[in-house]
Amino acid sequence: MDLAQTIDQIGRNAQAASRVLARLDAAQKNQALLSAADQIERETDEILSANSADLDAARSLDAAMRDRLQLDRDRLNKIAQSVRAIAELKDPVGEILKEWERPNGLKIAKVRVPIGVIGIIYESRPNVTIDAASLCLKTGNAVILRGGSEAVRSNAALAAAFRGGYVSAGLAEYAVQLVPGTDRAAIPLLAQMDRYLHLIIPRGGKALIETVAASARVPVIKHFDGVCHLYIDDAADLRMAEDVVLNAKCQRPGVCNAVETLLVHAGIASDFLPACAESLWKKGVELRGDEATQKVLGSGVKPAAEADWFTEYLDLILSIRVVASLDEAVEHIETYGSHHSDGIVTSNPETAEKFLRSVDSAAVFWNASTRFNDGGEFGFGAEIGISTDRLHARGPMGLEELTSYKYVVRGSGQTR
Prior knowledge:
Largest sheet: 7 strands, parallel
CATH superfamily of the largest domain: Aldehyde Dehydrogenase, Chain A, domain 1
Number of helices: 14
Strand order of the largest sheet: 10-9-11-8-7-12-13
Strand content: 15-25%
Number of strands: 16
């Protein structure tokens, strides 16, 4: 078969599998997930060998991308544990969201159901293979995965282990399918497959997301840039603020919820910035600042250009701007940010609540690192991604975000 025929057959298989999955009860799905987790652990050596081959073939990748690509025993163990955590979560399918009775005696219920067939196109991170497969299986959705070329061997090994686990538990073979090969022509073919596909979710760089959105014939949930901010208010506990900044920037800089711009109130800039900058420099962070920041920190700070305020570095680089007020901080975030993850550090509850109301991002934080904008940290077990859209889902996408609903109407012979 040529590529178009292959994608069409994958779609047919997924549609058939989705009908079977939608009828499964929670116990059946949970057993399949537990079996898949066990199989991932049994095939650890094979998966790590495949990942090593991917890393060898991707020596030109920058440090952030290599970090996303790399697996080790600890990361694989965490992947398997996340599958088990999803099995422990309440199954949302079948939940009655609302029910009522009409004067004519009709009983109406709004019931949560699977979406159907979901396509996920992603880059670099092989853990997405298992996160997506687990969440979709738990919610009764068939999933078609198309990973990036840099992780082709890792994704194939992970998908094979996951499939071996759930098939041994009696589930339909095509519940989870991985598009074979690395041909980029598969992306528009998948995005246009409206006969079988109900939703497509691209996870990756801006170019990938724009390509999918431009060609899609099905709804798209986008996961755009993480230009994340922390604002240090003049009423902040400065030691807390420094700890939060260091975590948000340095704990794992190559991820979408790492902070990229630090906003500091002018009233505490001279007290806060020198110590915080020293800690950041010790971690290897390059600082780029406005004129006020440069005056406080001197020649160790590079001048920030206009483009820096828009940039998701995904690296040990941080832009810093001194602002005169909360309103100026909010204006900066709304002008330059990507509505992903933004936070404030302050001891003033009124200031904090104003910030939380004013900043229109998927997740807003008070006295906490932006790194917590994550499905696992929110208690979702895992996530499909962090949506920066407003419809149909926003923020970390867990089980509920992978469901729709239908109306179930029960009568006793009523006619209109």
